[in-house]
């Protein structure tokens, strides 16, 4: 025997590896009828997309083969002169063709008005002047002129003037709806007794 016991260790048989447990054979997963229908639907959708793409590619190829015979169509060049036109109401400037300027002047009594002022004049004519464009244009020009004189120089004064006008219209109104009990802001009770109660 060896002094350190090395021989005894060498002579001992190695332990046998543990046998692996046998794998259970799993049954194939069953696909539900709903899953099968969904898969068939997805496949049909992919096939129809592929068919459409192939048809589009064939059509493009046929068009490309026929295209060299035709020249690309050129857009006509703008030969008409463009001029700056200034609105006679608000002063805004736009680039317009002379034909457009002529049509606008015919419609608005010889004056050129921008698109925003034209919409305002049309609304004014329908609501207050019975469809008469001349009177609506004169009223709109008066408002724009006043705004250009006062509003641009002093916007706070213009806002104060607008609030005064709203209050004036409110006071002139004779409608019972406007002067009903629900339209006036009132207090139901005073808060002074509650405040003095906290101090005492």
Describe the secondary structure blueprint for this structure:
Blueprint lengths: L5 H6 L21 H34 L16 E4 L6 E4 L1 H10 L7 H13 L5 H19 L3 H18 L19 H8 L1
Antiparallel strand pairs: 1-2
Pfam families: DUF1677
Please tell me about this protein's structure.
Pfam families: DUF1677 (PF07911). Residues 1-13 have a biased composition (Low complexity). Residues 1-32 are annotated as: Disordered. Residues 21-30 have a biased composition (Basic residues). With 200 residues, this protein is mostly helical. Helices cover 54% and strands 4% of the residues. The chain is built from 7 helices and 2 strands. The chain has helices at 6-11, 33-66, 98-107, 115-127, 133-151, 155-172, 192-199; strands at residues 83-86, 93-96. The chain has a two-stranded antiparallel sheet with strand order 1-2. The chain is flat and about 105 Å long. The model has no long low-confidence stretch (mean pLDDT 76).
Describe this protein with a few key phrases.
200 residues, mainly alpha, two-stranded antiparallel sheet, 54% helix, DUF1677_pln
Short description:
With 200 residues, the protein is mainly α. The chain is built from seven helices and two strands. A two-stranded antiparallel sheet has the order 1-2.
